[in-house]
Design brief:
mainly alpha
Length: 71
């Protein structure tokens, strides 16, 4: 089983976030959230409501703790 899991990761078949199909955001939304927040016109809460995620999830995206591979 460990070999199979390692092979899955090497080939990019593993879910990176652990959320699988429950994921509410995609790379495009994450990039947009970061750009909008950077303008200073939107708060974490504003963006969380717009994208229907928790304020904490939005904050984690903005500070780069999640979705690190997205600019």
């Amino acid at each position: 089983n460990d070999e199979n899991m390692a092979d899955m990761v090497r080939k990019g078949r593993a879910c990176r976030t652990g959320a699988g199909s429950r994921r509410k955001l995609n790379a495009e939304a994450v990039s947009e959230i970061r750009k909008l927040y950077a303008t200073g016109e939107f708060s974490h809460l504003d963006l969380a409501r717009k994208y229907k995620v928790s304020q904490e999830a939005c904050r984690q995206v903005i500070i780069g703790r999640t979705w690190r591979d997205v600019a």
